[in-house]
Amino acid sequence: MRDRYRSSPPRYSEVSSIRSIQSLVREKSVKWKESSRHINYLDLGCGEAKGTRKFADFLEKASGMSVKPFGADASSRCEEPCKEQGVEFLQIELGSEPIPHKEAHVITLFETIEHIFDTDFLLQCIRDSLSSDGLLMITTLNVVCWKNRILVPLGIQPINTEVSTRKLSYGYRLAGLKRRVDAWKPAGHIRPFTLHSLGDMLLDNGFAVVASYGLENWRAFKFLERIAKNMCTGILVIGQHDTRKLGLNGSALISKR
Fold it and tell me: Exposure check for the chain: N or C terminus, fewer CB within 10 A?
């Protein structure tokens, strides 16, 4: 999945730097320590696993627990880099196959869900893999970010949406913008999200939303993270099992496919 990237997306560092997430992990770890000696961490769409390793180190520091990291990706080319990072590799076609890994305390899905065709099936598989007291963290691009609110009324293709596997610049009417976008290559974005649509989909698939954040990559617009998170370029939503949809033993009541 993320073997397209030469380096890991910056979301691993961005998410781990948010103080309230550090506090959330610390709070959850009190419960995790009652039943486990380590945090069972699964990164979906791990690529070369440098980000996986970085986030595992963050979890260890925030919780005071050792972390056992696993990385899942569709490409077999990710296996060797995962080994180099001390991450156990699982080859899975996300959104098409069940996730064999179970009882994960933390599952991350960073800059990956926008590439998945059957997102509902993926979330059902994640729900089955997440421990009853675990956390799911999803980041993706925001189709209604401030940039697109300027471009779309001008009849320009929204940034981070793709209509072709050959070029990204179709629909960009301004010559300078078209040239800049022409330097990039399509990444396979097929599912555009907003903060609200991602939250709604989680709720509909048996999760409760714990927290949500805006992630802005333009320094001059970082203030949007504080006052208008649904206008940021990226979004983060954290979910956990909706206890109203769990059985007495913590298993999901919603049927599997």
Answer: C
Does the residue 207 lie in any domain?
yes
Number of domains in the chain: 2
* Under 8 Å between Cβ of 210 and 24: yes
Domain membership flag for residue 183:
yes
**Could you tell me if residue 248 is inside a domain?**
no
Query: Which residue reads 């189709």 in tokens?
Result: 143
Q: Over the stretch 18-75, which tens digit does the pLDDT of each residue have? A: 999 999 999 999 999 999 999 999 999 999 999 999 999 999 999 999 999 999 999 9
| pTM given for the model | 0.91
Backbone angles phi, psi at 191, to 5 degrees: -125, 95
Residue 46: which of 91, 16, 15 has the closest Cα?
91
Judgement on whether residues 23 and 150 belong to the same structural domain of the protein? no
Identify the band that residue 106 occupies on the pLDDT scale cut at 50, 70 and 90: very high
pLDDT of residue 235: 97
